Amino acid sequence: MKMTRYSMMIQWSDEDQLFLVTIPEFSDRVMMPCTHGKTREQAIRKGEEVIEMYLEAWKADGESIPEPSTLQIV
């Protein structure tokens, strides 16, 4: 599986005092934000873990897996 091809949006939340992680390709199937971290690095690590977890679960359940999106710069 190509989990590194999925997008992650990392945003700081003043309210939560955490970096929140959103995975755009999963937004119609998973409540967002899907994870968080105290540091940007921790948020990225946890985001990668969430991507891997969902992909493995969907594959095991025989569900369709969302395609990674590609940002095109014109």
Give a verbal description of the structure.
The model has no long low-confidence stretch (mean pLDDT about 90). It contains one helix and three strands. By secondary structure, the protein is α+β, with helices and mostly antiparallel strands. A hairpin with a 4-residue loop joins strand 1 and strand 2. The chain has one domain. The longest helix is centred in the C-terminal third of the chain and has 21 residues, at about 40-60. The chain has a three-stranded antiparallel β-sheet with strand order 1-2-3, covered by helices on one side.
Give the key terms:
1 helix; alpha+beta; 3 strands; 74 residues; three-stranded antiparallel β-sheet
Provide a concise account of the structure shown.
It is built from 1 helix and 3 strands.
Write the layout of secondary structure elements.
Layout: E1 9-13, E2 18-22, E3 35-37, H1 40-60
Antiparallel strand pairs: 1-2, 2-3
Tally the structural domains: 1
Please state how the strands of the largest beta sheet are arranged side by side: 1-2-3
Percentage beta strand: 15-25%
The portion of residues assigned to helices is: 25-40%
Order of helices and strands: EEEH
Specify the biggest β-sheet: 3 strands, antiparallel
Report the principal-axis shape.
globular
Mean pLDDT: 92
Question: What oligomeric state do the depicted chains represent?
Answer: single chain
